[in-house]
Amino acid sequence: MIEQQIDIPTLDGRVSTFITHPERHGPHPVVLLFMDAPGIREELRSMARRLGTCGYYVMLPSLYYRSGVFELGPIPQDEQSPERRRMYELMESLTIAMVMQDTKALLDFAAMQSAASKGAAGAVGYCMSGRYAISAATHFPDRIKAAASVYGTHLVTDAPDSPHRTAPRASGELYFACAETDRWAPPETIAALRESLAADGVNAEVEVYPGTQHAFAFPQRPVYDRDAAERHWERLLALYRRRL
Question: I want to staple 133 with a disulfide (CB 3.0 to 4.6 A). Which of 45, 110, 125, 185 is the partner?
């Protein structure tokens, strides 16, 4: 495997991006892995490597670069801790428009790399970035042909760019993996998402993972559910095999 940490130019600066892909038998389909709120850490790099070993050119950007932040470090469970409050501030500083601007920069960079395929690409986002992965498919329908939101937040909002509103613009396939217990995406939100996607005839699947909580796919979280996490990997890789 090849690993690199590269600063990729954007309109707002340079986004530091972890890239991993197989050494041989390229070019490899590009997969954008969008971080969750706690930001870049070894846990996410390990997940990027797992995707990469399956034959993909994986890009994991540090989305907080506009605030001069690369890694936040450990985040206490205490909601009132300074570290967690800072995390929320950083999370709320991002918008779909900002991240789509970054997505264009990432795709443009990948288009110049011999190891990266110029064909169909994929995206996956966890927690705050579920909406970004889905939005990537709706903003770049000619490139992003498979996008997955894993316990994504803010999927159904009143905003014009809410993922449930823009989903019909996608030309590929969308997948939503949802936790059964999730205060950021409660059952009524999942129901509204399902209804909207079905009404608009979007090629999408919404799956609720029984007995799980928000963040179930992260091995370092107390709520980690190994069986559910492995199922999400199976579903994600099957999606990419079909579309990429």
Answer: 125
